[in-house]
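User:
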Amino acid sequence: MASKKITITVPEELVEAARELTDTVSGYVAEAFARKIRNDLLAAEVRRYEEEHGAFTDEERAEADALLHGEPLPKDQIEPVTAQTAKAAAKLLKDAGLHGHTYAIDATVAVTALNQPGPVAILTSDVDDLTKLCGGQRVRIVPL
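Assistant: Predicted structure:
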């Protein structure tokens, strides 16, 4: 990613705290910017989803918080990659005109999403391939 030099004003104590934590304050600030942008985009997507489908329940929010903080999903929510999933992923790849191992994970994610009760959203940095694989079906592809 290309960089651009800018001038910003921040409280002096934040600059000093950053300098104690890192040798590259610019990198530290860039990482904070990126995290804030991701959080803002995610918050906007959550608001859009809730406007369309209703508010998340307390249980759903607790599950999301657990995932965001690295806690594993309960075992009954982990989707195994079965032979049937692999075959469906291979068919998706063929139908989308994609081939090779580089697309295998995307195809597996797409099949898993398509098999879930809707609505479903996939947050990804690989929007083009997942859009091709999901074929405009009921899976919303959200760019990160």
